Amino acid sequence: MNDHELAAALAAEAGALLLEIRSQGGDAGDAMANQLLLRRLAEERPLDAVLSEEAADDKVRLGRDRVWIVDPLDGTREYGEPPRADWAVHVALAIDGVAVIGAVALPGMDVVLHTGTPPVVPVAHSGPPRLVVSRSRPPKSVDRVVERLGATTIPMGSAGAKAMAVVRGEADVYVHSGGQYEWDSCAPVAVAKSAGLHTSRIDGSSLRYNMPDPYLPDLVICRPELADSVLESLSGSVESSRG
């Protein structure tokens, strides 16, 4: 199978496992989904490097052009609160630092969105922009977007679920600042880009992956027609906290 198909298949496999063992809690889910993904990638792409949230960072990846970047369970809190469905599995392949291939599984919704079959974003709705935000700790930058764009907010769990809400047309903008890592955004960004959405840092610069420090604190995913307005509203709002 090609890389797109592999990303989708592995995200689906990990999602099925997580559903099966959900009663064991988030720690078990993180560990077992990580084991599955690492084993399957070693089988299918033994020459590629891997960066996973749940594994030690092997710096050999810095000498590789192809690096799989995975989050075996994005949204551990939500996963531990059944029947919540706003959690995800991220499987991405960065090539030369760019999020090229990715899959985001939403197992609680029985959905896998991936770059092999780029999603079709629904037409824009007629109301004010809908901004998807963290249900527990929205970043300060959210207030700027709400104020300047007249946006409404939709609280939601994991980064993957929020990003896919924009892809699925359930929201129009996802903004994060103040603390994320490459595994939080690589797969969602790949899928969102394949669907024609805008993706960038909050200063408008490109998102780069497989960096020596995988800390990648801020992110914008939005409908392309809103990108200029969103970025203008965020000007000067970069937050340095790793919270």
TrEMBL record:
Class of the enzyme per the UniProt entry, highest EC level: hydrolase
InterPro entries for this protein: CysQ/Inositol_MonoPase (IPR050725), Inositol_monophosphatase-like (IPR000760)
A molecular-function term among this protein's GO annotations: 3'(2'),5'-bisphosphate nucleotidase activity
Residues spanning the signal sequence: none
Coiled coil: none
SUPFAM superfamilies for this protein: Carbohydrate phosphatase
CDD domains for this protein: CysQ
Enzyme Commission no: 3.1.3.7
Keywords: Hydrolase
Protein known as: 3'(2'),5'-bisphosphate nucleotidase CysQ
Organism: Rhodococcus artemisiae
Organismal lineage: Bacteria, Bacillati, Actinomycetota, Actinomycetes, Mycobacteriales
